[in-house]
């Protein structure tokens, strides 16, 4: 066992990053292939690759604080990763909301913040309007081509540039989330919509944020992830969105029985915001 760990440590230190990523991806594929062969069935279907399985793969973090504070969309849970194409439940949720509830059409202009690979791949094949993928650190998104560097608190786009903005699990990383919300509203066209998903809790009394908390261990203990700067209380998050000037619709997924087939998280809700006409 010690020898195996030593070999792994040596390879991690000596192999080029791209080689390590290729090895990790191959391991993921082999694991997914074994999982698929053991879980044949049609309980769940992937909206991206159309493959069906008895269940999807488990993923997420397993910190005690996530259970204690019942952090939605933040913990270890079943049926997250499609074993065939690797898409996450948050990607399936975003596509369903955009196409089924938000009126997204291919000719629309869309800004995809911190783009998820499968969702962006879908946009790249579908969108005939303007499609922009952006991230503060583009190299963190190696699977997304043509990604541009943007700071969500200071976007380099004209007012009213986009019909839709997709921003999944980003605002909890940003100290000045109010500025980021205002920027999203600014670049939306009148009548434009955004999907702004975050992890949240319904059992805490108020949003927890303390900018003196800076270590990974402290952030994990308070917020459930090392790079989060707050944990939103659900109703306070809605209030912040409204304060930024958005019209807000909160869609509870447990009421949308038809979507369970696509293995979205039934405990989660969708935060759909609109800019007034």
Describe this structure in words.
The protein is an alpha/beta fold and 277 residues long. Helices cover 33% and strands 19% of the residues. The protein contains 8 helices and 13 strands. The protein has helices spanning 2-14, 17-38, 64-68, 89-101, 117-126, 177-187, 216-223, 234-243, and strands at 44-45, 52-53, 57-59, 77-81, 110-113, 131-135, 148-149, 162-167, 188-195, 200-201, 232-233, 247-252, 269-274. The strands form 4 sheets. A 7-stranded mixed sheet has the order 7-6-5-8-9-13-12, sandwiched between helices. Strands 1-2 form a two-stranded antiparallel sheet. Helix 6 links the parallel strand 8 (162-167) and strand 9 (188-195).
Task: Describe the secondary structure blueprint for this structure.
Layout: H1 2-14, H2 17-38, E1 44-45, E2 52-53, E3 57-59, H3 64-68, E4 77-81, H4 89-101, E5 110-113, H5 117-126, E6 131-135, E7 148-149, E8 162-167, H6 177-187, E9 188-195, E10 200-201, H7 216-223, E11 232-233, H8 234-243, E12 247-252, E13 269-274
Parallel strand pairs: 5-6, 5-8, 6-7, 8-9, 10-11
Antiparallel strand pairs: 1-2, 3-4, 9-13, 12-13
């Amino acid at each position: 066992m010690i020898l195996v760990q030593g070999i792994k440590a040596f390879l991690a230190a000596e192999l080029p990053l791209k080689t390590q990523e290729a090895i990790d991806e191959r391991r993921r594929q082999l694991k997914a292939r074994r999982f698929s062969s053991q879980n044949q069935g049609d309980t769940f279907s992937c909206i991206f690759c159309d493959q069906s399985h008895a269940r999807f793969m488990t993923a997420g973090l397993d910190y005690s604080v996530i259970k204690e504070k019942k952090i939605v969309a933040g913990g270890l849970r079943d049926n997250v990763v499609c074993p065939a194409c690797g898409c996450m439940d948050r990607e399936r949720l975003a596509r369903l909301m955009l196409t089924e509830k938000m009126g997204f059409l291919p000719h629309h202009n869309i800004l995809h913040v911190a783009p998820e690979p499968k969702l962006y791949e879908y946009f790249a094949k579908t969108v005939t309007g303007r499609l922009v993928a952006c991230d503060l650190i583009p190299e963190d998104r190696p699977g997304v081509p043509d990604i541009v560097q943007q700071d969500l608190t200071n976007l380099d786009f004209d007012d009213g540039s986009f019909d839709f903005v997709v921003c999944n699990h980003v605002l909890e990383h940003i100290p000045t989330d109010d500025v980021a919300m205002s920027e999203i509203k600014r670049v939306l066209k009148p009548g434009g919509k955004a999907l702004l998903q975050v992890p949240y809790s319904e059992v805490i009394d108020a949003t927890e944020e303390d900018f003196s908390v800076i270590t990974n261990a402290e952030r994990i203990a308070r917020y459930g992830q090392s790079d989060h700067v707050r944990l939103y209380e659900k109703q306070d998050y809605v209030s912040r969105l409204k304060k930024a000037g958005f019209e807000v619709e909160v869609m509870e997924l447990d009421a949308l029985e038809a979507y369970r087939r696509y293995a979205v998280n039934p405990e989660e809700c969708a935060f759909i915001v609109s800019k007034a006409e």
